[in-house]
What does this fold into?
Amino acid sequence: MIRVEHIHKSFGGVHAINDTSLEIATGSITGLVGANGAGKTTLFNVIAGHYAPDSGRVLLEGEDITGLPPHALFHKGILRTFQIAHEFSTLTVLDNLMVVPKHSGEGIFNAILQPPMVRAREREIKERAEDVLDFLQISHVADELAGNLSGGQKKLLELGRTMMAEPKIVFLDEVGAGVNRTLLRTIGDAILRLNQERGYTFCMIEHDMEFIARLCETVIVMAEGSFLAQGTAEEIQRNEAVIESYLGRGGKRKRH
It folds into this structure.
């Protein structure tokens, strides 16, 4: 479980996050929504170690992880993706997956003195990467340069890279942005399967309320850097404060 307690974060005297507290339950898929500028991405960046909060703390299963850098959080099982995919464009899709795990044979001395161990580890990683490609239904682009993929395929690749790290919790920043409906359904199916079959915990920023409603048991709404409401997608779409600040009178945020 991730617990955020009374987080404050300002930039140039402007409050990006103002006394925000929330919980993300282990094994859940939690949606984080709100208008642009509500503080969602800043909150992600604080939790994932890209920003240190001005005050407050972040707890992972009771351990205070406030302000730890991203590489330390990676080893604790916390991963964060970005709205714009960060693939290695000149590597193949398969190689993009294989660079994620920490090789037991890393280092020049192990490579020289223990080559059989290194080769065995590389075979293991390749097999795992191929399994990930099968799971995500993108085995047909395994040998394609990642830079040549469509936007939706890049989002699937980024999801695959998180799978290679076997995380405890994944923070997805607008995984559906710029993705066509067919690939969006594939991405949604993969997230659901990872949650239901492999126990992954997700927290996702997303503007598409249909996508949120399909995936998320709990939806948290932020406005002007603060917690506004929490509930099911259906409850959120009926919440008067949320309608006024974010959804509009139609009660349903459109994709953009």
Notes: The chain has two domains: 2-87+149-247, 93-148. The chain has a mean pLDDT of 88. Residues 173 and 236 are 20 Å apart (CA to CA).
